[in-house]
Amino acid sequence: MSSYRTTNHVGGALIDAVADDHQEMYTYYDQYVKSTGDADAQERWSRQLTWEVARHAIGEELVIYPLMEKHLGEQGKKLADNDRAEHQEVKNLLYQLESLKPGTSEHAALLKNIVDHLKPHNDSEEQEDLPLLQKAIGEEGAVKAAASFTRTKKFAPTRSHPSAPNQPPFETLAGLMAAPIDKLKDMFSKFPTEEQKDSIKN
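Structure (tokenized):
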């Protein structure tokens, strides 16, 4: 049984949308670990995890953190700045991961380090940051924010770009420029097959 699971949280549209992403990250990592000894499968699950983390981070940086700064005042700015800094650490690690070969101990160790960085960050968002924001913007605001977060991820880069700006409006432009290049690279990358994805739903 994996120790990587979303925390108990108060729920609500925005928290649920973000927490669902967090759980997907942990699920993909679980599949990576279960595939030890199968370099091809590990490459696919590693790429899927990177894809999810990259899109998720951009969605938060473009939608959620500006809302925290707007509605939570000075506290919101501190929380957003801290979250951006934690994202930057993970982006740097994901960028390093691309130079390592799946199936090696080095690749496995770095990916575990990445998930170990993500877990406390994700827990803090689910238990502290997002409940504060959701309370401030109300149920209707949370529904709108969740929809915007989900929509933004569709246009986000799918790979780590640690040197790119992490605040709008510059991040928006950088993301729009990087996304087509990432999607072209994705066409030549290995992702889990539909059969492999279906296996984790059962």
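Residues 105-153 form the longest helix (49 residues). The chain has one domain: 13-199.
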